[in-house]
Amino acid sequence: MAKLKINQYVVGPVQTNCYFAINDDTKELLVIDPGASPKQLAERIRQETCTPVAILLTHGHFDHATGAEELAKEFDIPIYAYETEKETLEDANLNVSWMMGESLVFHADKFLKDEQEINLAGFHIRVLHTPGHTKGGCCYYFPYENVVFCGDTLFCTSVGRSDLPGGSASELIRSIQEKLMTLPERTTVYPGHNDVTTIENERMYNPYL
Question: What is the sign of the dihedral through the CA atoms of 195, 25, 67 and 132?
């Protein structure tokens, strides 16, 4: 089993969690949701003396995707997203960059399917489609490391908002119940904002579930 190290950086105007999933054995690195500060994140990657392999987007909102393209170009690495999130990425109304007075368009190089299993940076990853916050939101589950990166689907004792374009409260709760609450209770949850939690903690204390 690969030795996983996770670095968390809070970036951008709405305090988004960007994560580095680092394979301490191979010195490879995955960037999850670089929503801002690409130059600073690039410097952090160099400080880690790791080889970046890919960028994983949990969804296409500006606060999770804005820094992805510059970082991808800097290291010549692909950007991954869920297949039905293409429209969100490419539409300023759907990616809500208009909320910051901008009209931004994002892209991904590789699109993923529900329950698809991929191997990146020495990690085995299962893709979980979790619509509700956005149409093509997804989570990245590392079963052998017992962690899941869930973007704005699930928060510590809360859930993502569903009132933005493409959102659905009923879909969001169904996604969490069917895709996340079925994970082992020891799974550590790394959300897109605020504190890290566990599946066990959310089963016990999340008032929305």
Answer: negative
Q: What does the alpha-carbon distance between residue 176 and residue 199 come to, in Å, rounded to a whole number?
A: 10
pLDDT in tens, 147-201: 999 999 999 999 999 999 999 999 999 999 999 999 999 999 999 999 999 999 9
pTM, to two decimals: 0.97
Count the Cβ atoms, other than its own, within 10 Å of residue 20: 20
Q: What is the pLDDT of residue 2?
A: 67
Name the residue with tokens 């956005």.
134
Cα-trace Rg, the chain: 16
Q: 174-196: buried (b, 16+ CB within 10 Å) or exposed (e) per residue?
A: ebbeebbeebeeebbbbbbbeee
HEC string of the chain?
CCCEEEEEEEECCCCEEEEEEEECCCCEEEEECCCCCHHHHHHHHHHHCCEEEEEECCCCCHHHHCCHHHHHHHHCCCEEEEHHHHHHHHCCCCCCHHHHCCCCCCCCCEEECCCCEEEECCEEEEEEECCCCCCCCEEEEECCCCEEEEECCEECCEECCCCCCCCCHHHHHHHHHHHHCCCCCCCEEEECCCCCEEHHHHHHHCCCC
Tokens 């901008």, residue located: 102
Is pLDDT above 80 for 1?
no
For residue 28, what are the β-bridge partners?
23, 51
Say yes or no to pLDDT of 88 above 80: yes
